[in-house]
């Protein structure tokens, strides 16, 4: 019984993979053993190095949702200025806009403009 799968581009054998994983695990374990024994997880050693500067608070380094879209909003500032000018918050205005745009689209589709 052969475990080798032969394809036009090569072969695959699960025994080679098991040997490779065992060898990889052994090498990883040897590297782990050579690590620094004075390392302590619960000390200042786990803090990020910021060129000697004090680590800022999480609130100062946190990216807010508004910051994510800053470039998009800044690039379309003129468009948003127009939208803010016509934005009333009244549902009747939105329905009027909806019906107006729907009438224009219907006119274009039926009229063949």
From TrEMBL:
Keywords: Membrane, Transmembrane, Transmembrane helix. The chain crosses the membrane at residues 15-33, 94-112. This is Membrane-bound hydrogenase MBH 2, subunit Mbh2I (Na+/H+ transporter subunit). It comes from Thermococcus sibiricus.
